[in-house]
Structures are given as C-alpha cells and as structure tokens.
Specification:
This protein is an alpha/beta fold and 248 residues long. The protein has six helices and eleven strands. 38% of the residues lie in helices and 16% in strands. The chain has a five-stranded mixed beta sheet, with helices on both faces. A two-stranded parallel ribbon has the order 1-2.
C-alpha cells in the first residue's frame, strides 16, 4: 500500500490484516506531489520486490480552490492526477516487465473518470501552450480535474504504442462516484452540504472498488489501451478540445 500519511496507512492496513490474517501487507510512503518521493518509491519497488503481478495507480485530487505545489511549481490537481501519475507509470513499467508473473504479463490500471467528456468546458481550453495555463490561478476551476483525467487518456493513447501487451497490460478504469473518498475534502459551507447530499447517490466502496479489481484481474490483453467503465471495455477516448476519436 502506497500512502502519503503513514499513520492513516497503517490504520487501514490493520483493518485489512484483521480481515485477511494470512495476507502480508506492507505500507510504503509515497507523496505524489513530490518528484523526490516518487523516484524513491520506484527505487524501493525495484530493490525490495521480487515479483509484481498487479499495480493500481489510484491517487487523485479534486480541489475547490487553487493550490500550488511549491516544490514543482505546478497546480496540485494537474501535478498529482497527470504529471506525477504518468511519471510513476514510466518509472514502474520496466520493473513490471522484468518482474511480472512467469509466462504472463503484469497488469497496470490507472484510475480515471468519465468526467473527461466534460473537459471541453475548461476555461483554459484555448491556451497555447496549454500546460503552463494549468498553473495560472486566474484560469483555475474545478474543470481542471476533468482536464487532468483527459490528459491521462491522451498519454496512455500514445504509451501503448511502445508497450507490448505480452509484457504489461495497461488500461484505465473508472469506478464512478464512490462515497467516502474525501475527494472534495476542502469544500465548505453550502458546497459541503450539497456534496454530502449528492454523495448519497454514489456507489459504496464495495461496489466501486470491484471495478478496479476487474480491470487487473478479470480483463486481459483485450483491454490493453482501453477505458473500462462499470466492468465494460470501451475504446480509449482521445479528445482534443474540439474532436472526439476512439481506439481500442
């Protein structure tokens, strides 16, 4: 378990150990807002793990207000959801290839969101160049979350041209809105109340989490480079801000 708060991570691991006493569960620190932490985590994976069957990258933030990561100079949503997640993917892919299960490919899924379809509403959609505009507080909005997820689609669209499904099967999976994730933990006042009401329409963790398990356990090479929603394979969406194209 990769966590940014060791105390919370150990508390979660303790509950899992009670439910699964035969399982060996380790908690490793990983701060997705720090390039130093990401690189250190990748080195730890390389040195400490002899085999890796499955990797799920599920870190994500959705902020109400603008928050700059001082160590990188990037806005936090753009940093964590896109830049850091893709960096970690690139660092771990050769390790997955080398240490996957004998005779079978390892599995990697990146948690994503169907909100990519709303990315065209982003206020910085016409910015040129695009990336620096995510770090501008004047163009920040909650739509940045949607754009960060769309950028992950675009990245994977190109990545699968360089990764053979015989080595590592890569896909992205959407568990839909899940209750209790604290995704909008910085909401206050009426917005907080509204989100709590809306949250009741979401899936429970017991319903949402199997979407991720399905992506790395039940789905095989047919899902390589694809987008999974509610246990179904969909063509990976590559969307510029003016066009939509699918491929799988």
């Amino acid at each position: 378990m990769a966590v940014r708060n060791s105390a919370k991570g150990e508390a979660a691991a303790a509950k899992l150990r009670q439910s699964h006493p035969k399982a060996r569960i380790e908690v490793w620190l990983l701060d997705m807002s720090s390039y130093v932490s990401i690189q250190a985590f990748a080195r730890l994976v390389q040195s400490q793990l002899s085999r890796i069957d499955i990797l799920i990258l599920n870190a994500g933030v959705k902020n109400i207000s603008f928050n700059l990561v001082k160590s990188t100079g990037h806005e936090e949503v753009f940093q964590v959801n896109y830049l850091s997640t893709m960096l970690l993917t690139l660092l771990l892919l050769p390790i997955l290839k080398a240490k996957g299960p004998p005779g079978e490919p390892a599995h990697l899924t990146i948690v994503n969101a169907a909100l990519i379809f709303a990315a065209a509403k982003s206020p910085n959609r016409d910015a040129n160049p695009l990336f620096p505009s995510f770090n501008d507080p004047m163009t920040f909005s909650q739509e940045n979350y949607n754009s960060s997820k769309l950028l992950a689609h675009m990245f994977l669209w190109n990545l699968v041209d360089y990764v053979n499904a015989d080595d590592v099967i890569i896909n992205i999976s959407d568990p839909a809105w899940v209750k209790g994730t604290e995704l909008l933990s910085d909401a206050k006042g009426e917005m907080w109340v509204g989100l709590k009401v809306f949250e009741q329409t979401g899936r429970t963790p017991k319903v949402g989490s199997p979407c991720l398990v399905d992506a790395v356990v039940s789905k095989g090479k047919e899902s390589h480079g694809c987008f999974l929603m509610s246990w179904k394979i969909h063509p990976l969406v590559l969307r510029s801000f003016d066009s939509l194209e699918g491929r799988c």
